[in-house]
Structure formats: C-alpha cells, structure tokens
Design a protein that fits this description.
54% helix; mainly alpha
Length: 514
C-alpha cells in the first residue's frame, strides 16, 4: 500500500498501522476545460467570514493603455517565449481550476501527519505540541477532527476570497492578456472571465496560508507550491503581474480573517488533561450508569479530543440542537439484539463485509473520512466543469457541514461515553484497530452522511449514489466490529441533520439564482 508519509518514528500494532487496504489517490487526472458557467454575478454572492465581496479592498487597476500595463504584457510574452519543459508540465498540472489541486495538497498533508503518537519507553504518552512541532512527536496529529477543521478553514477562505475576486473582476472588467495582445499564446481553454484580480492567486495564497498554520513543518514546501502556481498564471497568458498582486492581497487578507476565527474557536482546548477527561467520564457514569474504557495497552490516559464537541460550529446554532437520543442501556433488549447482530457478522467471515470494512477504514496514514469525501467532491467538480468560484463554494459548504457534524459527533461521544463492542461483549474481536474514543455515535457515519447530503444538494444527479456510499461507510464500521448498529444508523441521521444547516445557508447565498 502506498503511504504518503515518512515521519514514522514508532512501531504501531500491525492491525492499526495497515488498517487501510486501498491505495491513496494523490492526483486526479484532468485537463483544463471550458467552464459550465462563468457566474458573472458571483461577486454578489453572500460570503461566510466577511459581509460582502467589497469588504476587502484592492486598488483600481492601471489602464490597459498605460505604459506600465503594456510593459506587463511584454513581460508575459517574454516569459512564454522562454518557457521550459518543466514549466509546461506545471501548466498542465495546475490547470485552470486549481481549487482541486490545492485540495489535493491538503489531503496529502493530512495523510502525511495522520500518525498517532506511540508510548514512550516508560509507557507514558507525549502529545504533539504546536509550540514544538518538530517533536517528538511531530505536530500535528491530523486525526479526523483535525482534518475536518483544516479542510473547512481552507475551503471557506477560498470561497470568500473568490467572491471578493469576482466582485472586482466584473467591476473593472479587465480582459486577460491573451485577449489584449493576440501575440500572447493562451495555454488553456477560453473562459472569458476578467483577469483582475487573479482568482488563481487568491486560491494559491489563501490555501497556503491556512495550510501553513495547520501544518507548520510544511512552510517551505507550501511556499514552493505557491511560487510554482503563481508562475503558471503568467505562463498561461491569463494574467499579468498586477492581476496576481491583486489576488495575493485578497488571499492574504481573507486567510488572516480565517485564522483569527480559528485562533478562538476552541480547538486548542480539545485535547484535555487526564483530570478533565476523568471528570467527563465520571459525569457520564453518574448520568447513565456506564462509561467507555480505553482498550489500548499501555492505556492512553486520555481519549482523542474529549472537548472537540465544544469547538465553535459554522452553521449549527448550538451543539445540543442535533445531539442524538440516549443509546440503548447495556443489558436491555435493544442492546442484546445488537449483540446478536454483531456476533452474526463476526461468525459469517464474509469477504464482502471485509472488503467494505477495509475500503472505508480511512485509518492512519490516510486522509481520513473527511478527506475521502473531498476526493469524491473533486471528481464531481471536474465532471461538472465547475469554475474556481463554484468549486470553492462546493468545498466550503461540504467541509463546514463535515466539521459541524464532527463536532456534534464528538459531543455525543463524550456526553454519552458509550462503550465499544470490544469492551462489553466477552471474547469479541474486530477486523481493524479500535479507536481510542467512545463509540456512540460513529464518526464515519456522521462525517459521511454530512458530506453526502451537501453533495446531493449541489449535484442532484449524484444524490442516490452519494447517499448509498454514506450508508455503506456507516455499516462498514459495524462489519469491522468497531461500532454498534445504532452508532451507525443514528450517526447517519445526525450527519444529515448537521448538513441541513449548511444547505439552508447555501440556498440563501445567491449562487442558485442562475
């Protein structure tokens, strides 16, 4: 199996380390294309972090008749005339929809850092520390909650930045260099979207600034990708340097606003001390009469991010609004019926069950369940020939829904603190590593249902397909012996409920009015 990381410094149990049986796709094969729409009114759409597309200001572009602009056109022609074979490859790689490419970079980094810290020699554990990212252990551990948050902030920054770009594009309406000077060769299919400011520059800078904050050891790598991407904007014949400068300014400012929100959203408190973790468990025991107990050896003193359920949500007004009902009491008829179901799946040893469980595992060294749904979204974006703005909108609403759903899921996990099957069914075995956090509800179910609902809204022709995938992702955790069936079914409903808030907001942003 292909792995996208080289940071392993601990030996993990084989059942956990090699829990994913499918190769990770690193790059979608597609060429530049004619957009299905230009969304000329995109600058009037309602953004997420800012009040309107005019909130961030940029200077008025120089007249096309000015000597400064004519010099920029000359620079474009010179750059194209001396293009190298590697630069041609870069042009083909980035295409005219780089939203997909920057999403793939995010997925690559999530997979690279999706490594759970192992025990020290004395059996204790050291947590990744953002103030000492080199570690050991390295920071971050990009587990599913972390991945969902990184993807949400990057996508929202892209979306708001591109609404801003569209606002000024159609205000100033400056045509691309290849339309200003017919001697300039155009590398891509023609889409007559005004060039100032460069939407590609917005995407590059906004994406990289978010990812540098989320993955601080990757600053040099991300800076190199920005330089490579910005160079292609000149070589494509679509932008002059002042177009790029305007896009860079927007990208920097919207990323700063996104990171300001991130600094106060509560994520820094999600991984708690043992004392806080124990108090959460004891409160659940007093409330319900049960609590989850970690099955690792040596036992990790604190489960994964007990307070992620307290992180600020994007579109759900408060986490209790979609908190699921109380799960069956252990020993009750509903519980015993589920025990029979799980034992039945284990006894069957079905190759199909195992295939499904492995396909959806999305464990260590992968881009996690949120990343899996981003891969699907990339496919649909290219299939439907979305422009950069509409692509970013898709990713923003989907990833906000996925993060909100994850917050809700983690709220339920630690509010109910429900044991996993391996804890309460004597002699029970799983076919995959058991996660170090409570059972109810299933993260895979919640993440997948949320992602599927947003994709079904944006791509209605794919609705049956994506909802079917979400149901399969949910039951995969039951086939693997990791979850109860009610973890999956209730989690699916929970994810749908979380997504509806994002969909309701999307319906009001003006993008459907075309």
């Amino acid at each position: 199996m292909r792995k996208l990381y080289n940071l392993i410094y601990i030996i993990l149990p084989l059942a956990v380390l090699f829990s994913c049986s499918k190769d990770l796709r690193t790059e979608l094969e597609y060429e530049n294309y004619v957009f299905s729409s230009l969304d000329e009114n995109g600058g009037d759409w309602t953004p997420i972090l800012i009040s309107s597309g005019s909130e961030i200001t940029i200077s008025e572009p120089m007249p096309i008749s000015s000597s400064e602009y004519q010099a920029e056109l000359k620079d474009v022609k010179t750059a194209i005339a001396t293009i190298t074979s590697q630069q041609k490859k870069n042009l083909a790689h980035w295409t005219n929809n780089p939203v997909v490419r920057w999403n793939e970079i995010a997925l690559e980094l999530i997979a690279k850092y999706n490594l759970i810290p192992g025990p020290n020699e004395d059996g204790s554990y050291t947590l990744p520390n953002p103030n000492n990212p080199e570690g050991p252990p390295v920071f971050p551990f990009s587990h599913p909650p972390y991945a969902s948050r990184a993807l949400a902030y990057m996508s929202v920054a892209q979306f708001d930045g591109l609404i801003t770009a569209w606002h000024y594009k159609y205000q100033y309406n400056r045509a691309s260099p290849y339309l200003q000077d017919l001697e300039i060769e155009h590398a891509y299919e023609e889409n007559p979207i005004p060039s100032y400011p460069s939407d590609g520059a917005v995407v590059a800078v906004a994406s990289a600034e978010i990812l540098k904050a989320m993955f601080p050891l990757e600053v040099e790598y991300l800076n190199s990708k920005v330089s490579e991407h910005l160079e292609t904007l000149i070589l494509s014949g679509e932008n002059v340097q002042s177009d790029i400068d305007g896009g860079v300014k927007i990208g920097e400012e919207i990323a700063a606003l996104a990171l300001t929100r991130a600094s106060t959203d509560g994520m820094k408190n999600a991984q708690t001390s043992k004392a806080v973790s124990d108090s959460i468990a004891n409160a659940a025991f007093e409330r319900f009469g049960w609590k989850w107990i970690n099955q690792e050896a040596p036992v990790r003193p604190v489960g994964l991010t007990p307070l992620f359920g307290k992180v600020k949500m994007w579109n759900v007004p408060y986490v209790e609004a979609i908190r699921p009902p109380v799960p069956p009491t252990p020993g009750s008829p509903a519980y015993e019926e589920d025990v029979k179901i799980l034992k039945g799946y284990l006894a069957e040893h079905s190759e199909e069950y195992r295939r499904i469980a492995n396909f959806w595992q999305d464990g260590l060294g992968t881009y996690t369940p949120p990343g899996h749904w981003n891969e699907f979204a990339n496919d649909f974006i290219v299939k439907n020939k979305f422009n950069t703005l509409r692509s970013a909108r898709t990713m923003a609403y989907m990833n906000m829904a996925i993060m909100d759903a994850g917050i809700s899921c983690w709220d339920a996990k630690y509010y109910y603190h429900y044991p996993r099957p391996i804890q309460t069914i004597e002699g029970f075995e799983t076919i995959a590593g058991t996660p170090n956090f409570p059972s109810y509800t299933s993260g895979h179910s919640v993440f997948s249902a949320a992602g599927a609902e947003v994709l079904a809204y944006i791509f209605p022709d794919e609705a049956d397909k994506v909802r079917g995938w979400a149901k399969e992702a949910a039951i995969s955790r039951v086939y693997g012996g990791i979850h109860w069936t009610f973890d999956a079914t209730v989690g699916t409903t929970q994810g749908i409920n979380a997504a509806q808030y994002s969909i309701d907001r999307a319906k009001m942003d003006g993008a459907d009015n075309f």
